[in-house]
Amino acid sequence: MTEKPFLVSGRNTLIHKIRKVDLLILNGDDVPAVLVNHRGIKQYEGKIPDNKREAKMMDIELVDVTLSDVFGDEKTLIFIQTLNGKEYKIDYSKVGTPLFIKIHLDSAF
Description:
Blueprint: E1 6-9, E2 13-16, E3 22-26, E4 34-37, E5 40-43, H1 52-57, E6 60-64, E7 77-81, E8 86-91, E9 101-106
Parallel strand pairs: 2-7, 3-6
Antiparallel strand pairs: 1-2, 3-4, 4-5, 7-8, 8-9
């Protein structure tokens, strides 16, 4: 079994830990996906891979927060710590506004 490119911390925090693999965060069907890479985080506009194999070919790890090995249900708030030393807050109650994805903590060195 290979190592996951992220850690789950607490009830709503993900920690990105492998630079070569981006994370595609899925949180139910009604909200946009979010892409996490080594430079930061943004709303994902592309086609969502149909399966893990297709995602792996794109150097992406699908992270469905509703699965039991992640959080187990849809979340309104998710915090993501990125490799660049920043923590972002994704507020799904603010989809479509500038407050959807914001820097929560900036501890870049």
